[in-house]
From TrEMBL:
InterPro entries: Flagellar_FlgE/F/G (IPR020013), Flg_bb/hook_C_dom (IPR010930), FlgE/F/G-like (IPR037925), LlgE_F_G-like_D1 (IPR053967)
Taxon lineage: Bacteria, Bacillati, Bacillota, Bacilli, Lactobacillales
Compartments, as annotated in UniProt: Bacterial flagellum basal body
Pfam families, per database record: Flg_bbr_C (PF06429), LlgE_F_G_D1 (PF22692)
Protein known as: Flagellar hook-basal body protein
The organism of origin for this protein: Candidatus Enterococcus willemsii
Chief subcellular location: other
Keywords: Bacterial flagellum, Cell projection, Cilium, Flagellum
Family membership: Belongs to the flagella basal body rod proteins family.
Presence of keyword GTP-binding: no
Span of domain Flagellar basal-body/hook protein C-terminal: 185-228
Domain Flagellar hook protein FlgE/F/G-like D1: 95-137
């Protein structure tokens, strides 16, 4: 009975994380260059269980086989599909027509990656992000307005990208420069979130919450009756 509470706790934790992820995708449905994320879950490792009710005196180990205590979040899948292009006509807006990411210099000096090409020019006539991060060119130097040779890179394992928030990623995986990338000036790539899919996922998650709440209520009532019955002896 107590094991049921443990399994339900794991289920509620998974559902909460799924709901948080859906909410994040929905909140960024209008964010330029945003790539949606999907959580996937996996079954916990099987463990061996036993008691000591074997033998004539019921004091010897009795192996009962294996048991799985539920599921857990296994990781996050990044949706690599390109979002739709929106024409802005602004000369500081850029969209990548191929796979890959713009490279930018983060405040900690490391390189970050994004598909958000909503840039501006600083006082040195260098392209920066809206947050002021320098956009890097093929020589790993800031990109100048008169020579926008953007550095566009891909990764051997894109799913190894670590989200830093605000459409920025970092990665320890090998970086490969995209040769002759197609970069369109005056366009932005919109979010690739499909609102309808996220709404369906939210409804499904809500129904799973309700189902688990009913199981919790039933389990709690059964335990209450069991304790009351034992109290009579």
């Amino acid at each position: 009975m107590i094991r049921a509470f443990d399994t339900l706790t794991k289920n509620f934790d998974i559902l909460q994380k799924r709901q948080e992820n859906i909410s994040s995708n929905m909140a960024n449905s209008q964010t330029t260059g945003y790539q949606s994320k999907q959580l996937f879950q996996q079954t916990l490792r099987e463990v061996e269980i036993h008691n000591y009710q074997n033998g004539a005196r019921l004091d010897q180990r009795n192996d009962l086989g294996t048991f799985t205590f539920g599921n857990e979040i296994g990781g996050i899948n990044l949706n690599m599909e390109k979002g739709a292009f929106e024409e802005t006509g602004r000369p500081t807006d850029f969209a990548i027509g191929t796979e890959g990411y713009f490279a930018v210099r983060l405040p900690n000096g490391q390189t970050g990656y994004t598909r958000n090409g909503n840039f501006v020019l600083n006082d040195q006539n260098q392209y920066t992000t809206q947050e002021g991060y320098l956009v890097l060119g093929g020589n790993n130097q800031p990109v100048l307005a008169e020579n926008p040779n953007f550095q566009v890179v891909t990764f051997a394992n894109p799913q190894a990208l670590t989200s830093e928030g605000n459409t920025y990623f970092q990665s320890n995986a090998a970086v490969q420069a995209v040769e002759n990338p197609r970069v369109f000036q005056g366009y932005l790539e919109t979010s690739n979130v499909t609102v309808a899919d996220e709404m369906v996922a939210m409804i499904q998650t809500s129904r799973e919450f309700e189902a688990n709440q009913k199981v919790l209520s039933t389990t709690n009532e059964t335990l209450r009756k069991t304790v009351n019955e034992l109290g009579r002896f």
